[in-house]
Specification:
50% of the residues lie in helices and 15% in strands. By secondary structure, it is α+β, with helices and mostly antiparallel strands. Helix 1 packs across helix 3, helix 7 crosses helix 9 and helix 13 crosses helix 15. The termini are far apart.
């Protein structure tokens, strides 16, 4: 078994594993990846690779590009900033990641084993991610220090994953744990806040006596924080050095593996980020795993965090695990667990999946909202009560559960006024919105508006650039999508009715201008905007004028 980051290449069974779970990969792409992995760190020319995979057979070199695209997609690699496969233009390829031989103690179905272990627990649909963390822990236990960034949008389950990992920790490999969380607003005023919290937990935990002894000998200025947060004034910031703390943590990991967890590092102070950087870059062997959670593109001013993470990724000194939304079967399982019954009312799982789009926090909130509205009710007696559907799902389509609405509002309010206006105008369309429509709604320059929308897509996790459309006049306009329809609904509802109406009318009029002579193709869309603006007569006229066109053409 050849191991690189959380992937394993099982040459005996001809399969690729991610965190112990098999990954779909056709034979030829697998053969290409195997040759790269078996020859890491050196240039492999196009001719060498073609001869190795297709001996005595002529194959167009362009086929390699197709396979490389497929491999990068499977590995989550970026051609611009590669972690695994580097393209050397007109020459060939180089495999960048560190490759180790690993004799797995567990069968290839490690993810399935973890899934069985988690049944009845508090986490759903994250067996592969847990298996990946387990692989990182095993690497750390062998003295190969690991830094792992677990990223994902709010509510996606980062803390739940860390809790599940913590619960399995000692069953996999006996280890010490230190855990601290970053808090919004504190990062800019108090240095090392999550570090101090982690030291306090470690000193108060089962290995506290050993931790205090090592800190007292190697980093005494940090020990006061570990024992008593109120004693921090006794040690000045100048006395606390990163060198001392790094050395002490490495010493602690010599006794048994040490896992240091920092949650929500998008709120971390620069000093804490410097500690993570130092722990990742030090050369000495250490049975140390640093696990940091973050929301990507959470707020402006994250240059230090992004620069650190990208630099460590480029140097192959860390791993990033991005949590994706849950798939439909996992959402069904989560709803069943929340309601405490296996058989669900017809259509419930599909409705919750559609509304939540696989975000676990949203799944729970939607279910609770259905219960609060009486759409779901428990009926029965004598221990046989079950949840039944007592309402119609379409009646729910415009509702956003209050807890989610408040969470989304807080996220929006962190943005500037101009950014909020852009998002509000974008919400007037469907989940997908073009830049020209935002410009029309706000009476802004289309080019400047598209640049501003690009900025939002880079900054926010819930806005994604999806492509470009060619307009009837030959110009091109980028379009974007809301990653979650609930964000769009909150943005739509927060606008004053009169302002929203004016913006709908501007979009309808701009549609008429753009598609002059081809009004039929956008008649329904224009009518919907007039209807939303509270002008049903204009909406009806648009539809009637189009319906009359074929009849008039027939008279001529």
């Amino acid at each position: 078994m050849k191991q690189f980051e959380c992937f394993g290449l099982d040459t005996a069974n001809q399969c690729l594993l991610r965190g112990g779970a098999p990954v779909d990969l056709a034979p030829k792409p697998f053969a290409v990846l195997r040759y790269l992995v078996e020859n890491p760190g050196r240039l492999i020319t196009h001719d060498e690779l073609l001869d190795a995979i297709w001996p005595e057979t002529y194959v167009q070199p362009q086929v390699l590009r197709t396979y490389m695209l497929e491999l990068r997609k499977v590995l989550g690699d970026d051609a611009g900033q590669p972690r695994f496969i580097q393209t050397l233009p007109k020459r060939g390829y180089r495999f960048l990641a560190k490759v180790t031989e690993w004799s797995a103690r567990e069968p290839a179905g490690a993810a399935e084993t973890l899934a069985r272990e988690m049944r009845g627990g508090s986490i759903v649909g994250r067996a592969a991610e847990l298996a990946c963390l387990k692989a990182q822990l095993q690497l750390a236990a062998r003295g190969e220090r690991q830094v792992v960034f677990v990223s994902g949008e709010a509510g996606i389950g980062k803390t739940t994953l860390v809790d599940a990992f913590r619960g399995q920790l000692n069953a996999w490999t006996p280890a010490s744990l230190a855990r601290g969380g970053c808090v919004q607003g504190i990062g800019g005023t108090e240095e090392y806040y999550p570090v101090m919290e982690a030291l306090r937990e470690m000193c108060a935990g089962p290995d506290g006596e050993s931790a205090c002894r090592v800190l007292s000998r190697m980093a005494p200025a940090w020990l006061s924080h570990g024992r008593n947060p109120g004693a921090g004034a006794a040690a000045s910031a100048a006395e606390r050095t990163l060198e001392d703390l790094c050395s002490a943590l490495e010493e602690l990991s010599a006794e048994k593996p040490l896992v240091v967890v920092f949650e929500d590092v998008h709120w971390a102070d620069d000093s804490t980020l410097h500690l993570i950087s130092a722990l990742a870059r030090r050369r000495a062997q250490a049975s140390l795993l640093v696990l940091a959670t973050l929301c990507p593109r959470h707020r402006p001013g994250e240059e230090t965090l992004n620069a650190l993470k990208n630099d460590l990724l480029m140097r192959r000194l860390c791993t990033e695990m991005t949590l994706e939304p849950l798939r439909r079967p996992a959402v069904t399982e989560l709803v069943s667990r929340e309601l405490g019954q296996q058989a669900l009312p017809a259509g419930l799982a599909d409705f919750v999946f559609q509304r939540s789009e696989g975000n676990p926090l949203f799944v729970i909130a939607v279910v609770e909202h259905l219960v609060a509205l009486g759409v779901l009710m428990r009926r029965g007696a004598n221990g046989t009560a079950e949840w039944e559907l007592c309402g119609s799902f379409p009646e729910m389509e415009a509702g956003v559960p209050d807890p989610l609405a408040r969470m989304i509002e807080l996220e929006i309010e962190r943005l500037g006024e101009e950014e909020q206006r852009l998002l509000e105008a974008a919400s007037l369309m469907t989940v997908a919105f073009p830049a020209w429509a935002v410009a029309a709604a706000l009476e802004k320059d289309p080019v400047e508006t598209e640049e501003a929308c690009d900025g939002l897509a880079r900054q926010l996790h819930f806005v994604v650039r999806a492509g470009q459309d060619e307009l009837p006049d030959g110009t091109r306009s980028a379009f974007y999508v809301f990653a979650h329809g609930l964000y769009r609904e909150v943005l739509y509802q927060r606008q004053a009715t009169a302002r929203r109406a004016r913006r709908h009318i501007r979009i309808a009029e701009r549609l008429g201008e753009l598609f002059a002579g081809r009004e039929a193709s956008v008649a329904r869309e224009r009518s919907m905007h007039y209807e939303a603006a509270g002008e049903p007569e204009r909406a009806a006229r648009v539809l009637q004028s189009v319906e009359s066109q074929p009849q008039q053409a027939g008279v001529r």
